[in-house]
Structure formats: C-alpha cells, structure tokens
C-alpha cells in the first residue's frame, strides 16, 4: 500500500504538468479556423428577369410529370453503377471518420510473454554456483496518450469530416447528373420514335404519290423523268429509316445501362411529346444559392476545408509533442506465483517531450506542399463556382431560345402541310408540276423532323437547367 502511494505521488506532478500544458496550448493551433474565400457573385444571372422559387429545392418526382420517365429515373437512382460506386466511397470515408473520432483517446495494448534461458557450464553464473536456467512470466498492459497541444488531432479529425462530407456531395453530384441524363435520354428516345413515325408516314405518302404519277405516265400526262424523280424521293425516305432505327436502339441500350438494366430491356414510354409546362413561380434562383444547392460546388469547398485542416496537421508535426506512457501488470519467475498479488504486481509511468530537430527537411517540405495543395483547392473551388454560374446562364438562354424555335417550327410545319396538300390537289388538276409536289413533300418531311428535334432540344434544356441549378438530389 505504501509503494502504491509513492507511485501515485510521483505520477501526480507529471499528470498536472501535462494537464496544464494541454490547457495552455490547446488554443495554439498553427492555422486559424477555416473561412470561406471571398467570392463575388452577381445578384442575378445574365438575362434573367426574375429569380422565382428555386427549382433546385423541388424533388425530381415533383419536377417531372411523365410517369414512365419517373419510373426510369427511380430505377437509375436505385441501380446505376456509377452512383452505387459513389455511395461506397461514402462508406469508405465514414470508416476513416470513425477512426478519427477515437484519435483523442489513449492507445492501449495487452501483451503476455514467457522467457526461458539456459546458460553454459562455464558461464559466470554457473562458476559462482548460481542456477544456469531462468524463467520469466510477464503479463502487462501498456497505455500511451499524446496531448493534443497543437491541435494536430483536432485538425486531422476536421480533415476526416470534410472528406466524408465531400464524398457525400460527390455522390449527390453524380445523382443530379444521372437524373438529367436519364431525362435527356428519355426525351431523345421519344424524338427518335417521333421521327421514325414521321418517316414512315412520308414513305407511305411518297409511295402513294409514286403510284399516282405512274398512272399519269401511263395516261401520257407526265414524263418518265417525273416517275424517276418521285421514286428517288421514296428511296431517299426509306434510306433514312434504318439510320433512325439504329439510333433508337443505341439510345434504348444507353438508357438501360443508366438504369442498371441489361441492354435490350424494353423502355416503357408513351407516344408523342407531352407538353412540359414549367410553373411561372419556378426559377433558377440567384447565383449565391449555388453554394448550397450545387453538390459539385459544395464538394469543391469541402476539399478546400480538408486541405486547410491538413495544413494544420503538417505544421503541428514540426512542433514539440508530449506523450505519457503507463505500464502495469504481473511479473514472476515461477508460473505458480505469476498471478500472486500483490507480490507480482509492477507498474511504470513515463512522460516524454519530443522536439523534431532534423528530419532531412521532410517535415518542412510536407508543410509547404500542404500549403500548395490548399491553394490548389481554393482555385478549384473558385473555378467550379464560375463554371456553375456559366452553366446556369447557358441553360437559361437555351430554354428561352429553344422555346422560340419550337413556336416557329410548329408554324412552319402547319404552313408546309397546307402547301403539300394543295400541291397534290393542283397536280391532279394539272395546275402544278411534279417538281412542285416533290419539293413540297420534301420540305414537309424535313420540317417535321426538325420540329421533333427542336422539341427534344427544349426538353433537354429544361433538364439541363434543373441539373445546373443543383436539382435532383433532394428527396
């Protein structure tokens, strides 16, 4: 009991010294707290009339109305392999964070050893008449704790937290892109369906016109050149069909892969384009909102936060460290007395102060490199934010201009349909030439194909705007 009290008396000054040093130096972090770099953002996007309610806050199930499209997006969010890989990265970063949370606790090791030695007959102990053999049984517990006086462990934990948050936002960025890509691919598939239907209708119409011209040729009303021209027009339309069908198959396979399905799986969809009406209350918001809405912008800032914390870790490596080590256990030279207490009990307590002096310049180089990494991360953050503002601005212009294109394209199709019908009536009455009929039908086919493409472009622009403002990752 007296020996134990003596040990405690020797340990108390050491513990008090460490405690006072920790309290006095905990605030002495070699780097300050992270602060977001000053960024100058415009109050609104170029050409934007009103910010409106942020569409980024609207879940995709409420933003898109087509049930077939929603079913496809749900499948992609659940089964897309790129997104699943990103989710695994979150799990990986979470394990690192779990370790970082325990860095403040002491390290504890438990060991048990048995030593046996037998000296020679001519050894000093043998010549003195002492025993030539010796045995030693030891079971001990080792505890080691480093005082976090320069915030090395705190900054390491901050870096682990930032990495975990970054991995989560990277996954969200993958999801926003995935939602947009599925919507664009779905609408592209419907455009190809529409173009194939238009081409088939025009093939049937061209075939009817060819039959009519052959009858006119038999009656001597037109030359063989008219028949040949119309037959060429029919073959041209037929040649377009396989190309469109091949593109449709490729798009179906691409959507199946995005949805995590085997290529060749049928994609359920309705016929024709359902009008997409975006409520007037919805808008792109303001550029400042990108800092919280765009996952890639958030991830870039979290990379900067991680780099800032690691700068503190590397700087602290150059400063003194205080470590307390305690040992205790059972030791005996006979197995029968190994666990006999208190006779077999032993303990030790040690405090150490370590100041790196010369490490071949590695510590300083690591610190300087970490500062460079931080500068790179800040530049990446600024660039990512600029790109995000540009993408939203481009998407807004694309939505507006494709809407205007669609209006003009619809009017053109209506006019050419009327012209094509009149040309056939005039031709039957002998008041129009076959060239006028062919030209009218050719123009109508081209305008209908262009209208389908413009409609697809407008819907794709809306999906891209939804992604650009940071929509698609919220539930």
From TrEMBL:
Q: Which GO terms describe its cellular component?
A: plasma membrane
Q: Where does the UniProt annotation place the signal sequence?
A: 1-27
Q: Which UniProt keywords apply?
A: Lipoprotein, Membrane, Palmitate, Signal, Transmembrane, Transmembrane beta strand
Which SUPFAM superfamilies does the entry link to? Outer membrane efflux proteins (OEP)
GO terms (molecular function) for this protein are: efflux transmembrane transporter activity
Membrane topology, as annotated, equals: Lipid-anchor
Q: What is its main location?
A: membrane
The cellular location(s) given in this protein's UniProt record come to:
Cell membrane
The family note in this entry says:
Belongs to the outer membrane factor (OMF) (TC 1.B.17) family.
User: What protein is this chain from?
Assistant: Multidrug resistance protein, FusA/NodT family
Q: Which organism is it from?
A: Chlorobaculum tepidum (strain ATCC 49652 / DSM 12025 / NBRC 103806 / TLS)
Give the classification, highest ranks.
Bacteria, Pseudomonadati, Chlorobiota, Chlorobiia, Chlorobiales
């Amino acid at each position: 009991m007296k020996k134990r009290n003596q040990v405690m008396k020797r340990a108390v000054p050491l513990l008090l010294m460490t405690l006072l040093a920790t309290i006095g130096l905990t605030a002495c972090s070699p780097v300050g707290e992270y602060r977001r770099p000053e960024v100058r953002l415009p109050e609104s996007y170029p050409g934007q009339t009103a910010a409106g309610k942020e569409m980024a806050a609207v879940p995709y199930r409420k933003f898109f109305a087509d049930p077939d499209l929603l079913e496809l997006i749900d499948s992609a969010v659940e089964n897309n392999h790129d997104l699943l890989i990103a989710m695994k990265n979150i799990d990986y970063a979470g394990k690192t964070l779990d370790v970082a949370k325990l860095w403040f606790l002491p390290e504890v090791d438990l060991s048990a050893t048995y030593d046996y030695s037998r000296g020679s007959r001519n050894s000093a102990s043998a010549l003195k008449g002492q025993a030539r053999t010796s045995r030693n049984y030891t079971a001990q517990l080792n505890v080691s704790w480093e005082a976090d006086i320069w915030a090395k462990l705190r900054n390491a934990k901050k870096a682990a937290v930032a990495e975990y948050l970054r991995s989560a936002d990277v996954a969200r960025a993958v999801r926003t892109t995935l939602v947009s890509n599925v919507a664009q691919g779905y609408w592209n598939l419907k455009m190809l369906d529409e173009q194939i239907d238009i081409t088939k209708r025009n093939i049937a119409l061209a075939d009817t016109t060819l039959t009519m011209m052959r009858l006119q040729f038999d009656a001597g009303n037109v030359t063989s050149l008219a028949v040949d021209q119309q037959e060429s027009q029919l073959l041209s339309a037929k040649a377009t069909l396989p190309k469109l069908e091949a593109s449709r198959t490729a798009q179906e396979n691409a959507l199946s892969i995005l949805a995590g399905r085997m290529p060749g799986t049928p994609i359920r969809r309705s016929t024709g384009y359902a009008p997409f009406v975006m409520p007037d209350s919805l808008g792109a918001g303001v550029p400042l909102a990108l800092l919280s809405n765009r996952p890639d912008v958030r991830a870039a800032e979290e990379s900067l936060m991680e780099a800032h914390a690691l700068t503190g870790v590397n700087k602290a490596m150059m400063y003194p460290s205080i470590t307390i080590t305690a040992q205790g256990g059972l030791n005996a030279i006979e197995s029968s007395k190994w666990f006999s207490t208190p006779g077999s009990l032993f303990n030790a307590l040690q405090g150490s102060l370590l100041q790196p002096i010369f490490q071949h310049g590695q510590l300083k180089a690591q610190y300087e490199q970490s500062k460079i990494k931080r500068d790179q991360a800040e530049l990446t953050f600024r660039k990512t934010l600029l790109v995000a503002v540009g993408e939203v601005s481009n998407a807004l212009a694309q939505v507006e201009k494709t809407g205007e294109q669609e209006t003009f394209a619809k009017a053109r199709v209506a006019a050419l349909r009327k012209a094509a019908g009149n040309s056939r009536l005039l031709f039957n009455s002998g008041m129009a030439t076959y060239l006028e009929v062919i030209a009218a039908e050719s123009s109508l086919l081209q305008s209908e194909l262009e209208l389908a493409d413009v409609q697809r472009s407008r819907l794709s622009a809306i999906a891209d705007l939804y992604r650009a403002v940071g929509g698609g990752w919220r539930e």
